[in-house]
């Protein structure tokens, strides 16, 4: 089928969306109304769990470490600072808690914290550390409505097949004036816009889209639109800098291409792309203190 003829519906504003690009054999579409970028067609949540986020796939297999040895890294410190200021010592739910690191830190700060995690490997590890974690999807977790003061979606909303449903579920779980904290990449930051131009100018794969793991890529405006439609109001926001260079270069998948082809042209293209990314990444790290909005959004919403 010609993908230019397909017009899937945007999960935020319901507009019919246009084909945008293909990366790693996945088609991405761009909503002309709210600028949401998303993968289409989407796999079912069950197939994603079995193929991408299962024990057998090895997803996050390196994240079974002693939770006491790592300090709070910047994103988690900001999240817990916000939660502690707005809802101290409250009932805290970490959705997509992984190995339980933030859940552990939340407990150390005095929160009654628990988690939900679809990956069996990391959730079982979190439980082995004495944390209260449900293994599975949020909609299947035995959680009471209006029983939480804080719900945290940390680097999760971009992974789910239906972000609108996820926000609805969070609204249901939060009590009166509870807060929802979301962290996710901001695809409209200057770094993402610049590296998108590298794709247009030179054909370098765009590092900011990472299918099939990231199914939806948001910006600040359409994230607010999504969440506020479900009964929230924006309380505050902040931004962290771009991910490490090693991660961004890894998302180009050019080394994999060269190893497969063994072509000199692919080697030269890879080295050129890596050099361009390195120079650009260095510039943006230095420029971060002067940017109003950067790569990683931390959004705090209040239930109304």
What does this structure look like?
This protein is α/β, with parallel strands linked by helices and 304 residues long. The chain has a domain at 44-243 and 294-303: Vaccinia Virus protein VP39 (Rossmann fold). It is built from 10 helices and 11 strands. A 7-stranded mixed sheet has the order 6-5-4-7-8-11-10, sandwiched between helices. The protein has a 4-stranded antiparallel sheet with strand order 1-2-3-9, with no helix packed on it. α9 packs antiparallel against α10 (264-287). The longest helix is centred in the C-terminal third of the chain and has 24 residues, at 264-287. The chain is globular. It starts with 17 loop residues before the first strand and ends with a strand. The model has no long low-confidence stretch (mean pLDDT 93).
Structure in a nutshell:
The protein is α/β, with parallel strands linked by helices and 304 residues long. It has helices at 45-51, 74-86, 101-108, 120-128, 163-173, 190-202, 220-228, 245-250, 254-261, 264-287; strands at residues 18-23, 26-30, 37-39, 91-95, 112-117, 133-135, 148-154, 174-185, 216-217, 232-240, 296-303. The protein has a domain at 44-243 and 294-303: 3-Layer(aba) Sandwich (Rossmann fold).
